[in-house]
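Per reviewer request, we include the raw input and output of the structure prediction for the construct analysed in the revised manuscript.
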Amino acid sequence: MQVFRGIPERADHGCVLTIGNFDGVHRGHQALLAKLTAKSQATGLPAAVLTFEPHPREYFAHENRPKRLTSLREKILLLAGEGVDRLYIARFNRKLAGLTAEEFIEQVLIHGLGVRHLLIGDDFRFGRGRKGDFGMLKTAGDQIGFGVEAMHTLDHEGERVSSSAVRAALADGDMPHAARLLGRPYSISGRVMHGDKIGRTIGFPTANIQLKHRSPPLLGIYTVSVEGLAGHPLPGVASVGVRPTINDAGRPSLEVHLFDWNADCYDAHLRVNFLRKQRDEERYDSLDALTAQIARDADEARAFFAHNSIQHPF
């Protein structure tokens, strides 16, 4: 997949295009991308995605912005896995936000991306004041010569699939529900960084994984599987939170204790799959009390893996 930062002034090739934030790349996104790639194969044109960085709601809402399900790197990898040929990452700033719907169609879709067929969600709005909609795009397409198709929201087992629904499931600690909406376990990817190494002094060494955002969509203690160190996922237990017993610094961290793994994994890029929430994060009166609780957490996670396949835990 080719990745482009920004929108070209003039397209070098026509494309079949879809537009969206694709946070989480859930089942609804996957259905949309399947239609996109099918149209690409039928027309011989590349399948292209236009997404925005930052998320427009982050730009406008600031403190009330939604918690991201995926980092930009994770999103790129997931979109590549869905067969996308070209990804355009447009910086969402005052200039882009200020384009009228008509200017967006002309400057971005026609001149910049060379759209030949556009596939959008049925709730897609665009342009200054969100004045643009499917009807405006259909009229422009009929006049200029590109097709426009709306994709209805996907229902899975009677529920509307959306990034908001995934966030709600994660906030509730319902990892199987989140996995059903995503089509896979929820995961966070990142590089293993050096930490304070307290875990190894109490018998539970951890891999400290860099979090790209200050507000992860889940907090607590989880049964996890980890990819990136072996040819198969490794079982473990993870903590996402501010570590109130250690320092309560306020910035969330992701720490993973891998079972029966003793090798150095610094600088490795790992994917942590969250399979089951065990409990909320708590503050303990002493390091000994914390150590005893970590031992119970590890035993609980081991018991889970003794009765569930690591490949298909949900």
